[in-house]
Automatic annotation (TrEMBL):
CDD domains: AdoMet_MTases. Signal peptide: none annotated. This is Calmodulin-lysine N-methyltransferase. SUPFAM superfamilies: S-adenosyl-L-methionine-dependent methyltransferases. It comes from Guillardia theta (strain CCMP2712) (Cryptophyte).
Length: 116
């Protein structure tokens, strides 16, 4: 049974914190406008997707590769809206401003290394 404390529920559920952060970014876009954004353990990546509308570059990280692919597809589907919102020309490509990476865990110590 999935629930708020069940980590396996990640990737199939929009967490309250992701919704709150997304709303905060939509209400205060100047906090990330033109900046580089990194989301660690993004799950389905709602805040990263919202950040695509304002940030110069967004790096979404997740341990589960299938979630990375879902995020890339979400950005692709929303690219016309992102282009319009960013007031960029039609040549803007997803690769120009989005990086999605698998978060790798070292075998010893459990430290995460991220490179975007």
């Amino acid at each position: 049974m999935g629930g708020c404390g069940d980590i396996s529920f990640s990737g199939v559920h929009v967490w309250g914190s992701a919704e709150a952060l997304s709303n905060l970014l939509l209400s205060n876009p100047e906090t990330i406008k033109g900046r580089r954004v990194l989301e660690l353990g993004a799950g389905i990546g709602l805040p990263s997707l919202v950040a695509c509308f304002f940030a110069s570059h967004v790096c979404m990280t997740e341990r589960r590769e299938e979630l990375i692919e879902h995020f890339r597809e979400n950005v692709r589907r929303n690219l016309p809206l992102i282009r319009r919102r960013r007031a960029r020309d039609a040549s803007l490509r997803q690769e120009d401003f989005v990086t999605a990476q698998i978060l790798r865990t070292y075998a010893r110590g459990g430290d995460d290394a991220v490179s975007c």
